[in-house]
Structures are given as structure tokens and as C-alpha cells.
Design goal:
The protein has 24 helices and no strands.
Length: 544
């Protein structure tokens, strides 16, 4: 937290107006649902739409936050948290075995799209929706543009848990909701629905002239046959999904806004998928080039310009991009959902003449979710993992970076940090260093970190909201490092007295374990204070 009044005042203003916009958005969407002005509330029942949208948002919290934890924890020795976080240990014991992390990330990517499409079906307004007597200006801004749904999804369903999970991986993952979510993601991957992605993975690796690292033995003959059967049927389903979606677009049988020509809708569909793909790939590329030298980064004009912006000053633009990117991606997802979700009017024939049951399945929008997952997300991430510098060497990357930073600077999603602070305090989350120490401390204890892969080519781990990095973690509503140090010192004094007064060995052991945790927390806060002190000295020397 900055000590500068202007910085704190600016944050407070952004937080207030962002939370106000969020509350207003929630009221609008709930009013739409109970007025039967969303697709699901109109076609089925408002109660179902109400329950589904909130279940979907809460599940999206687990899917997004769980990703940060699952990607951030592999290097840490699991024995360090076996006793303190048994559910997290159980999840990671299975989720980090062999190549299961890649399988989880593949299935999880589809879950995000599927959940967003469910949210769209439950809460997006139907054509010409009007609620609460809103003037046209507000109705256009919050309803027709989809802003209300975007703010709800970003702040409630994504950013707040991503921020908490990126620093409190162990605490966040330590519940059975996350265990169930990981199992569902693994089941989706095992179904073979997304196996076309593996074919893309192989092609990308071959073009890069690199091999894909695996933590498993080569597949046996039968398993190899089963793998390729799933790849073929996944490709067949993907091709059919494209064919059915494009046919519905040209027949005017999607939820696309009225008055938009079919050709324009088709162009918009592919354009938005390209934008999503660029944003997904940029995230992986940015974290890859962060490990490169300045000379490597400046191999081209646009790569140099992009890196200059990205790593400017104290490096806040990288996490700033992550926030703005989330807004852009979710906005594109909702428009793609509207373009691809089918809607057959009474008396009209079904798309491609399929049965009524098949048409009902098409109407869920899952075909669009499948297309977007593989073509607009995973494929671009895999390309970026193999060719990060090439991804940066285009003006499109530079423009999208500037756009994301502009969106983040508006503070429109600052409310997510307010929600995160409330959630963190209510759940009692603590930073991972409290439980397992810093990387340096773990190394000193002979439990040094071990990366899961030496090369990220062909892997999706770089596409996660990065755990343990210097992200915009809200300290504004919490105690300063100095205040935390005072509190920790008080706890240490109390624990020392309790150890002296203990009447049994079991009591002594409990208090000593607690004292060790507080001591690690003290070491961490002392480190933070030293870093802040060095920054202050640097600032003062610059002023002189």
C-alpha cells in the first residue's frame, strides 16, 4: 500500500465507483431474469435462470482461482503442506502426477467457456429488453452492449479469486469444491472432446523443431490407438460444430442482434476469435519473454516497443495487462456466445434438419464453446508457447497491450479487489510463505523448488493467471507491513508464554508449531520492509 495520499485517494475513488457499477449491474441482470427478459427465464422459468447464473458464477470462481493454484504449486515439495492442507495435498498428488496438469488445463479451458455460455443464457437480455424504466442511454450502455454481464462475470466470477489464489494457493485450493472441479476438468479431457488440441500441439512442436516434454512413459500400442481414435472423433466434432454454426448464422437462427447481416456476423465471429486468440497467446508470450535478455527481446521493432511498455518502471504493466486482458476476453466471449448460440423460432425448421433433441442441445451454445476453446484459445496458446517472440513482433500485439492497459487504468474492475479483500478476510486466507516459507527458505530446508517442465513448448501452464508473481494484490484494505509486524511480534510473545505454561508435551508441540509459523511470517514481513526501505532510498536519491 502506498503511503502517498494521492495514490490512496485515487484507489478509493476507483473502488467506490467500480463497486457501485457492479451493484447496479447485478440489480439490472436480476431484474431482467425475474421479468422473464433473458432466454432461459423466458423459455423455462426465472427461478431456474436465477439459480443457474449464481451457481455458474460461483463455480467460475473455483475454476479461475483453482488454475492459479494448480499451476503455481507444482515446484513446491508437497510434503511441506501434507499436514496443514490435506485437501490441497490430495488434489496436487493426483493433479500433478505425470502429465495430468496439462490434462486438467485442457479440460478447464472448456469449462470456462461452457460456464460463460451458461451465464449468457441465464442473464443476457433478449432483443429489445427494457427494465426498471432505464433511459435509452443507460439501457444501451448496460444491456445492449452486455456491460452489466461483463462486469458481473469479471469481478464476481474471475478476478477476485484469481488475485487471492495467486498469493494464497494452499488455502484457496484446500476444499472439496476445488477437488470436484479438478475431477470434472480431467473427465472432460478424458472424454476426448478436446483431443484435436493434441494434434495442434504436435504440429506446432514440429514447426518449432522442438520436442514436447512429457513426465510419462510412451503410450502402449492399445493406448496409442485409443488416443488417435479420440483425436479423430474430436476433429470430426469440431468440423461439424463449425458447419452447424455457420449454417445457423446464414439461416438467421442464432441469438445475434437483429439487423446484423449474416456475412457481417460471420466476419465478426472469426474476428473476435482472432482477438481472443491473440490475447490468450500474448499472456504466454509475455511471461516467456520476461525470462529473456534485452537483446533477445529487441529482435524486432514491434517486439522492442511492446517490451518497453510491458516492463516499464517497476513492472506494474504486466499485471495491469492481465486485468485489462480479462475484460477484453470476457467481452469477446459474450459476443461470440450471442453469435453462435442457436435460437429456433416456433414453426421454423431445425438447423441441418436435426431432431428436436439435437436442436435443443445445439441451443445451449456448447458447439460455440467447443469451437472457441480449441480454435480461439488453446491453439493460439500452443503457438505462443513455441514462438513467443514472433507473437510480440506484430503491431496488433502492441495495440492490444495498450488497449488492455487503458481498460485497467479506468479502474472499472477495482471492485474485484474489494470482493477479494472481503473473501480473503472471511476465509482466513494467508500467503503461502506463512506455511511453506519463501523459495530461499525452502531451499535452505533441503526442499528446494523443482519446475515441472524445463521447456514450456506445447504446454498450457503459461496461460494461467500467474501464481506467486507481483500481481495487483489488494493491500489497500488490509494492514501495512509495519502493522502486520507489530501483530506478529505480539503473537510470538503470547506463544512463548503459552509454551512456558504448557502442562503436557502435546500442548507444547502445538504451541511450538504455531510459533514456527509466526516466525516464518515475521521473516517474510521483515523482507517486505527491507524491500520497501530500499525503494524509498532509491526514490530519495533520485529526488536529490
Amino acid at each position: 500500500m502506498s503511503d502517498k495520499p494521492g495514490v490512496n485517494g485515487c484507489y478509493a475513488i476507483k473502488a467506490i465507483y467500480s463497486v457501485a457499477l457492479l451493484i447496479f449491474s447485478v440489480i439490472i441482470v436480476m431484474a431482467l431474469i425475474f421479468d422473464e427478459q433473458t432466454k432461459l427465464s423466458r423459455d423455462v422459468h426465472p427461478a431456474l435462470a436465477f439459480v443457474l447464473i449464481w451457481v455458474a458464477l460461483l463455480w467460475l470462481c473455483l475454476v479461475e482461482g483453482g488454475q492459479a493454484s494448480m499451476v503455481g504449486l507444482p515446484p513446491i515439495d508437497r510434503e511441506l503442506y501434507r499436514e496443514s492442507h490435506p485437501v490441497t495435498f490430495r488434489i496436487c498428488e493426483h493433479g500433478h502426477k505425470g502429465d495430468n496438469l496439462d490434462r486438467y488445463l485442457l479440460g478447464r479451458q472448456f469449462m470456462v467457456l461452457a460456464i460463460v455460455f451458461v451465464i449468457n443464457q441465464s442473464g443476457a437480455p433478449v432483443e429489445d429488453a427494457s427494465v426498471l424504466g432505464l433511459p435509452d442511454v443507460l439501457a444501451n450502455a448496460f444491456l445492449k452492449s452486455g456491460l452489466a454481464m461483463i462486469l458481473m462475470t469479471c469481478m464476481i466470477g474471475q478476478l477476485n479469486t484469481q488475485v487471492n489464489a495467486s498469493h494464497c494457493m494452499l488455502d484457496f485450493l484446500n476444499d472439496y469444491g476445488n477437488w470436484f472441479t479438478v475431477k470434472v476438468a480431467m473427465a472432460i479431457e478424458a472424454s476426448g472432446l478436446l483431443h484435436a488440441s493434441y494434434l495442434i500441439q504436435m504440429i506446432v512442436a514440429a514447426l518449432a523443431g522442438k520436442t514436447i516434454e512429457s513426465n510419462e512413459e510412451p503410450r502402449s500400442g492399445f493406448m496409442n490407438l485409443l488416443f488417435w481414435v479420440r483425436v479423430l472423433y474430436s476433429c470430426a466434432i469440431l468440423i461439424f460444430a463449425f458447419f452447424a454454426t455457420i449454417a445457423a448464422l446464414f439461416d438467421g437462427k442464432t441469438t445475434m442482434w437483429e439487423g446484423v447481416p449474416e456475412v457481417v456476423a460471420l466476419i465478426l465471429f472469426f474476428l473476435l476469435m482472432a482477438v481472443v486468440g491473440m490475447l490468450e497467446g500474448m499472456q504466454i508470450a509475455f511471461f516467456a519473454v520476461a525470462k529473456m535478455t534485452d537483446e533477445e527481446r529487441k529482435s524486432s521493432k514491434w517486439a522492442s516497443m511492446t517490451c518497453d511498455v510491458l516492463f516499464h518502471g517497476e513492472g506494474h504493466n504486466l499485471p495491469g495487462f492481465m486485468v485489462g486482458r480479462q475484460l477484453c476476453v470476457v467481452s469477446c466471449f459474450f459476443v461470440i456466445a450471442r453469435v453462435t448460440s442457436m435460437d429456433i423460432e416456433e414453426g421454423e425448421s431445425n438447423v441441418l434438419g436435426v431432431s428436436n433433441g439435437a436442436q435443443e442441445f445445439f441451443n445451449t451454445g456448447l458447439l460455440g464453446a467447443l469451437i472457441t476453446t480449441i480454435v480461439a484459445s488453446i491453439a493460439w496458446q500452443l503457438v505462443a508457447s513455441a514462438f513467443p517472440l514472433a507473437f510480440l513482433s506484430t503491431p496488433i500485439t502492441y495495440v492490444l497491450l495498450r488497449l488492455c492497459l487503458l481498460l485497467e487504468a479506468t479502474g472499472i474492475c477495482t471492485g474485484a479487489w474489494v470482493i477479494a479483500a472481503i473473501h480473503r478476510k472471511a476465509a482466513g486466507f494467508q500467503r503461502d510463505e506463512v506455511y511453506v516459507g519463501t523459495a530461499e527458505e525452502r531451499a535452505a530446508m533441503q526442499h528446494g523448488d523443482t519446475p515441472i517442465h524445463k521447456s514450456e513448448v506445447g504446454h498450457l501452464a503459461g496461460g494461467a493467471f500467474p501464481a506467486g508473481h507481483d500481481l495487483p494484490y489488494s493491500e489497500h484494505s488490509g494492514p501495512t507491513p509495519t502493522q502486520r509486524r507489530v501483530r506478529i511480534m505480539e503473537n510470538i510473545d503470547i506463544l512463548k508464554e503459552q509454551i512456558k505454561a504448557a502442562t503436557s508435551e502435546d500442548e507444547t508441540a502445538v504451541f511450538e508449531a504455531a510459533l514456527r509459523k509466526e516466525t516464518r511470517a515475521l521473516q517474510q514481513v521483515n523482507h517486505e520492509l527491507r524491500v520497501e526501505s530500499s525503494k524509498d532510498v532509491d526514490t530519495e536519491s533520485e529526488d536529490v
